[in-house]
């Protein structure tokens, strides 16, 4: 990851990362993810995930921007 990596939410609601200093390729991180927030001094970000199946479910995931490893921190 370069110093200029951008977290984006695609039209499909997928969370992805884009390295602006490189070839600008899009790396998928989560199939669903909203409101990404970087963890200061880290390659990780938190994102909200909202499941639309019944019953409705929401969760907060911590995602690594290079490996896409995700950990659910909270679920309702």
Radius of gyration (Å): 12 Å
What does the main sheet amount to?
Answer: 4 strands, antiparallel
Helix content: under 10%
Q: Compute the number of helices.
A: 0
- SSE class: mainly beta
Number of strands: 7
Please state the average pLDDT score: 88
Strand content: over 45%
Low-confidence stretches: none
CA-CA gap between termini? 32 Å
Encode the helix/strand succession as letters.
EEEEEEE
Task: State the strand order across the main sheet.
Answer: 4-5-6-7
The 3D shape can be described as: globular
Write the layout of secondary structure elements.
Layout: E1 5-9, E2 15-19, E3 26-30, E4 34-38, E5 44-51, E6 57-64, E7 70-75
Antiparallel strand pairs: 1-2, 2-3, 4-5, 5-6, 6-7
Report on the architecture of this protein.
This protein is mostly beta strands. Helices cover 0% and strands 55% of the residues. The protein has strands at residues 5-9, 15-19, 26-30, 34-38, 44-51, 57-64, 70-75. The strands form two sheets. It has a four-stranded antiparallel sheet, with no helix packed on it. A three-stranded antiparallel sheet has the order 1-2-3, with no helix packed on it.
